[in-house]
# Entry
Amino acid sequence: NAGVTQTPKFQVLKTGQSMTLQCAQDMNHNSMYWYRQDPGMGLRLIYYSASEGTTDKGEVPNGYNVSRLNKREFSLRLESAAPSQTSVYFCASSFGTSGFDEQYFGPGTRLTVT
Amino acid sequence: LAKTTQPISMDSYEGQEVNITCSHNNIATNDYITWYQQFPSQGPRFIIQGYKTKVTNEVASLFIPADRKSSTLSLPRVSLSDTAVYYCLVEGRGGGNKLTFGTGTQLKVEL
# Structure
């Protein structure tokens, strides 16, 4: 099992450009999450999906959109990138639908917006 | 108001036992205590979870006193590879999907 995979690993964007971060899991998990981590900080939840077809906002959703394409895949889209969105983005998944449940994280995507 | 408070950093030497204490004065009845480990350039990894008393697995022990207002992660005989950031989280079963990470404790293990 690959676990949680993310593409791309690195990306540089200019202000105003758009892009989609891809995430997939092969553990038959129900819930998927997108976090961002800024230097020296903990992770902050952007969006999550408790099941296929549902998505909900987390702590910092502004400037992002998500799509739960199917049970395996959860994508994060930046429509008009801003320098404040420079960060490392982590996707995660869990079998259950509670923060109590163990979350499995991907390797991250390092995004720089100039 | 932060849900948890833990030291910003700790230093240790190989072979020593390391104890990282987390304060969570406002823990609710249905909250569990979970610890994650994060290496540089990697996503966090679940270490251990508990509700009360003591929990032990192959990598760590978690000690929770009766009042549950704090908890201690114990790493026996650390090695250089245990150098990482350790996050203490308090989350409730059925409390939704939000997992709240603080800034964590940077553990540095030296020879």
User: Anything to note?
Assistant: Chain A is about 0% helix and 50% strand. Chain A has a mean pLDDT of 93. Residues 90 and 108 of chain A are 4 Å apart (CA to CA). Chain A touches chain B through 28 residues (CB under 8 Å).
